[in-house]
Predict the 3D structure of the following.
Amino acid sequence: MAQKSVCVYCGSRPGDDPAFTKDAETLGSGLANAGLRLVYGAGDVGLMGSVARSAQSAGGVTFGVIPQHLVDWEIGKTDLTTYVVTETMHERKKVMFMNCDAVVVLPGGAGSMDELFEALTWRQLGLHSKPIVLVNTGGYWDPLIDLLNQFVARGFAEASLLEFVEVCADANETLNLLKAHLLAKN
């Protein structure tokens, strides 16, 4: 059976809480230890770099995708198992998503939100059934969770939208959930 892959969306900056980096490192090494391939944005900065370096240090398989215009800015990590350079951000997101079995979102900014909402919208439209997991380190995603609830409460989404996003308190809880989703059938 082919190796299962997890796409991790996260910040190209470390954020203001060391717990963000700790969860990124725990997730990266945990994916590797579980035999899950890391798919991510191929940067070597911020949480992106932390998750990738930890996966590599634990002997994991890494698949990075970066658009040409970000190679210098995000410091393209060329020592990955697979390193793909795309022409556009749209292509980057498509390649990352098409090469994964689940999506995990660590803390991040507008780019992470863009990636999350594209995956969530596709799920809402029935275009996939991949798990989508928010790593809610220190309550980082609480305002987003409130917003998702408001979408439903104010009539802009069906209640099923809330079932498409699973929320975990930290990377360890996320890893347990991923193992249940992706490895239980093996």
About this structure: The chain is about 40% helix and 15% strand. Residues 164 and 186 are 23 Å apart (CA to CA).
